[in-house]
TrEMBL record:
SUPFAM superfamilies named among the record's database cross-references: Cryptochrome/photolyase FAD-binding domain, Cryptochrome/photolyase, N-terminal domain
Cofactors demanded by this protein: FAD
Domain of life assignment: Bacteria
Name by which UniProt lists this protein: Deoxyribodipyrimidine photo-lyase
Protein's organism: Microtetraspora glauca
Length: 422
């Protein structure tokens, strides 16, 4: 018996139910990843290739290997299935439209397709509201049900992955790692362990402080499944306040995943249709993308995104709110830009949060608008975040860096605000 384990966004060996089940079956196991040549090389490519190199290493240390092929995922998987005479395909169940269409197409082939949990702490659809419906639309009741739910046990990495002999692994393209963050399960586990022993301290009070940068930065690893969200939640669930605040963030991730699972067009259509009208403003959109709106806290966030492929959550909220509520521009334009640049860019979290900010999604207060100046005063009181990312303002005292329009003279190279902000 031979089973292919098709890896997608679950690039790890620890707590990998599909891999463990395939290894326990007793036959041969062929781990596979198919690179999609249609996806343009972007910010996430180097990170993904790090993940694949690391996964290959750890499978090899378990007597296994990782086969890498290029092309259409279903065609390549079936070609390999014929080559190795596999009778089953094991994979982690996905939530996105693309992932689920891959699963449907595989199910249409003459092979046994088995799907396993692993992408979220609680699988989408496992919790349903008592009032009816296939998913939760509101976070707080979801959080309550989620916190009480029974979980599967975290699985150890399999000791041995018995690949058949004579397979050609396939080369991984040469690449350079992301300058700020190395991809892969080894780096993810090291970061998770550091975070649990040292980082979590102060999270409850500090996670909104923009300059303090006190969050885990585990999101790219969660995006590619280098770390199991269940293992992370189990680790963090000891019960103190810090853990509680952090685990709640992991629950947000599950929440948006179950929304995306139930509403696959989340990246295109309003979850609550007809609730907003948008204006076209190409000039404003490009100023926003470049970090040249003239509103320093917005520009700092957008420039962090350009420089690092990552942005602090509070800044994501401020810049998203600015685009949709102050400039009146369609959330889809913002979400697409984020998706292109974010290392953690992920359909469920990205579109779910954008729709939340735009008032077209799951927010229970859809009319709420943030004041960027008040946000900056509260979450960047010393303007250290602004000065870090907007060098034109770096030499100014905090209040002037935050509100340069108060100065009698223009700051060289820095624009006047696109919109009145007070
Ligand atoms: P931590 O504070 O350490 O949180 C731990 C984990 O909890 C994160 O890694 C993430 O997996 C999860 N989490 C935290 N906040 C949220 C949230 N609001 N929604 C869902 N999950 C959350 N997150 C993505 O992973 N991918 C995206 O494409 C994405 N797009 C976003 C777009 C907008 C407009 C906004 C407001 C938020 C977006 N987020 C997205 C959520 C959040 O900003 C990031 O998950 C977080 O900043 C990642 O940093 P961290 O790992 O240090 O977070």
């Amino acid at each position: 018996d031979t089973a292919i384990v098709l890896f997608t966004r679950d690039l790890r060996v620890h707590d990998h139910p599909a891999l463990s089940a395939a290894c326990e079956r007793g036959g041969r196991v062929v781990p596979l990843f198919v690179l999609d040549p249609e996806v343009p090389a972007g910010h996430r490519t180097g990170f993904l290739l790090d993940c694949l190199a690391d996964l290959r290493e750890s499978l090899r240390s378990r007597h296994g290997d990782l086969l890498v092929r290029r092309g259409d995922v279903v065609a390549e998987t079936m070609r390999l299935a014929r080559e190795v005479e596999a009778d089953a395909i094991y994979a982690s169940a996905d939530v996105s439209e693309l992932g689920r269409s891959r699963e449907r197409r595989l199910a249409g082939e003459r092979v046994d397709v088995r799907l396993f949990p692993g992408l979220t702490v609680v699988p989408p659809g496992a919790l349903t509201p008592s009032g009816g419906g296939d998913h939760y639309r509101v976070f707080t009741p979801y959080w309550r049900a989620w916190s009480r739910s029974r979980r599967r046990a975290v699985l150890p990495a399999p000791a041995r992955v018995p690949v058949p002999s004579g397979l050609v692994a396939g080369d991984l393209p040469d690449h350079s790692s992301h300058p700020a963050l190395e991809g892969g399960e080894s780096a993810a586990r090291a970061r998770m362990n550091r975070w649990m022993t040292r980082g979590l301290d102060g999270y409850a009070d500090g996670h909104d402080d923009l300059a303090g940068d006190r969050t885990s930065r585990l999101s790219p690893y969660l995006r590619f499944g280098c770390v199991s969200p269940l293992e992370l939640a189990d680790h963090a669930e000891a019960g103190a306040d810090e853990e509680h605040t952090f685990v709640r963030q992991l629950c947000w991730r599950d929440f948006f995943h179950q929304v995306a699972w139930a509403f696959p067009r989340i990246n295109r259509d309003d979850y609550r249709p007809g609730s907003r009208r948008w204006r076209d403003d190409a000039h404003a959109v490009s100023a926003w993308k470049e970090g040249m709106t003239g509103v320093p806290i917005v520009d700092a966030g957008m420039r962090q995104l350009l420089a690092e492929g990552w942005m602090h959550n509070r800044a994501r909220m401020i810049v998203a709110d600015y685009l949709v509520n102050h400039l009146g521009v369609d959330w889809r334009a913002g979400a697409a830009h984020f998706f292109d640049l974010l290392l953690d860019g992920d359909v469920a979290n990205n579109s779910g949060n954008w729709q939340w900010m735009a008032g077209t999604g799951n927010s229970t207060r859809p009319g709420r608008v943030l004041n960027p100046v008040r946000q900056a005063r509260r979450f960047d009181p010393g303007a250290a975040y602004i000065r870090r990312y907007v060098p034109e303002l770096a030499g100014l005292p905090a209040i002037d860096a935050r509100e340069p329009w108060r100065l009698s003279k223009e700051v060289p190279g820095y624009p006047a605000p696109l919109t009145p902000v007070e």
